[in-house]
Amino acid sequence: MPLLEIKNLRTFFRTKRGIVKAVNDVSYSLEPGKTLGIVGESGSGKSVSAMSILRLLDENGYIESGEIHFEDRELTKLSMDELYHIRGNAISVIFQEPMTSLNPVFTVERQLSEPFIIHQGMNKKQARENALKMLYDVQIPNPEAVIRQYPHQLSGGMRQRVMIAMALACRPKILIADEPTTALDVTIQAQILRLMNELQEEKGTSIIFITHDLGVINEMADDVAVMYCGQVVEKAGARIIFDDCRMSHPYTEGLMFSIPRIDSVHEKIEPIPGVVPHPLALPKGCKFAPRCKYCTRKCMEEEPALTDAGNGQLIRCFYPEKEVRRSAEHKKITVNQ
């Protein structure tokens, strides 16, 4: 049974130009002790779908409809007071940029002690002891000195480790990691990913890992949801997504072809043409149709449903079979050549 299940979630934002449908009919689930990777370009709705779980939205954002089930509770029905007991306690977040997420005027000790004081009722001395232990757990060198420092005195990698320590302080059942390695160099990124894997194995935490980096997803995720224009266009196990499977969404295929590979140095990288459409001017049919090299007239006029392709793989495409859409017959009916 899933630990977290999102059903037909719609999260919208009111703007002066109209309603932005940032997340439009999104469904996915997270199994206990597993990692769900959510991947897609900027503006695809990855972060908004995850932040909707705890209602961490801007003032103009709201959940239009849908269900979010966590254990035996329906989170969209809870009051804000009830939700406060879940935030940071049962479900925690590692935000994308640690420099803006940590308060620059408070020490690491002050900020890392807060979860223990607020959620677990500890006094300041107990909270400091536990905060120090968390810094040891995330492998920060010389934690006795670091705990007295301010965020600006730490490197990017150290700040991110402090954020991970804060997120894991109350031993949450779910950790939402919103592009936690984007601003880090590759060496520090590898260390952070290894640390998260070790902490997950030790504490049994389930993780929602949001990123645009398929290489990171390949290393971290058990299951993958690929998002585009506020919709899930493909869902499958990581093994199915990254193996040379028989079926896939053209967007997933495009993401694969647009990254360099060590095992195929002579292959040309193929970027996805065009840009993500403006959320207030989405195309009529398939949202990916204007950028898809396999697009047909049907794709431009009708919107495909998310259908079962077998092996637990769901694909939102009229032509999910790779051989079919690459065939000479299919090229005769494509419109984006």
Q: If you had to describe this structure to a student in words, what would you say it looks like?
A:
The chain has 337 residues and is an alpha/beta fold. Among the domains are: 100-169, no CATH class; 250-331, no CATH class. 33% of the residues lie in helices and 22% in strands. The protein contains 14 helices and twelve strands. The strands form two sheets. The protein has an eight-stranded mixed beta sheet with strand order 6-7-8-3-9-10-12-11. A four-stranded antiparallel beta sheet has the order 2-1-4-5. Strand 11 and strand 12 (314-315) form a beta hairpin. Helix 5 (124-137) packs across helix 7. The longest helix has 18 residues, at 186-203. It is globular. InterPro entries: AAA+_ATPase (IPR003593), ABC_Ni/Peptide_Import (IPR050388), ABC_transporter-like_ATP-bd (IPR003439), ABC_transporter-like_CS (IPR017871), Oligopep_ABC_C (IPR013563), P-loop_NTPase (IPR027417). It is found in: Cell membrane. GO terms for molecular function: ATP binding; ATP hydrolysis activity. It is a peripheral membrane protein. Keywords: ATP-binding, Cell membrane, Membrane, Nucleotide-binding, Transport.
